[in-house]
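Encode chain A's predicted structure.
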Amino acid sequence: STESPTTSAPTVHPFTGYEQIGGECADKDGGLFSYAQYNENASPEDCSVKCSGLATSAQVGLGVTPSACRCYFDGSAPDDEGQTFTSVDESGTGPVAGVNNESGENWQCYRRIAAGTVEPTTKPTEVPTVSPTTQAPVT
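Encoded structure for chain A:
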């Protein structure tokens, strides 16, 4: 028999809650967002885990290059231990509405499409880790 290729993860959605749109994340006017940056080699998935450890209510997206990860925020980015630096002087507001490539740094923007709808977790899961039928009833 022939194995069919796995199609559960389209390239546009490499992980839950984000959508790749290319370039550096920008608002509707092309303004860049404040961000928390980690200078390390990180995949978009790894970057999303780092970003999920920060305050996520105002998080609008993330960006990756081969050597860095940025978590973008509407408003001030949180300052967290382990960050390389934090930018708070950017003008971007509201959701990610486009990209801005003026820096020429080859950022890839992933727009957050589930902002405010899920509680932050260290690792997003699709299914419950414990089946309800295996838990003893509370008496």
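The longest strand covers residues 59-65.
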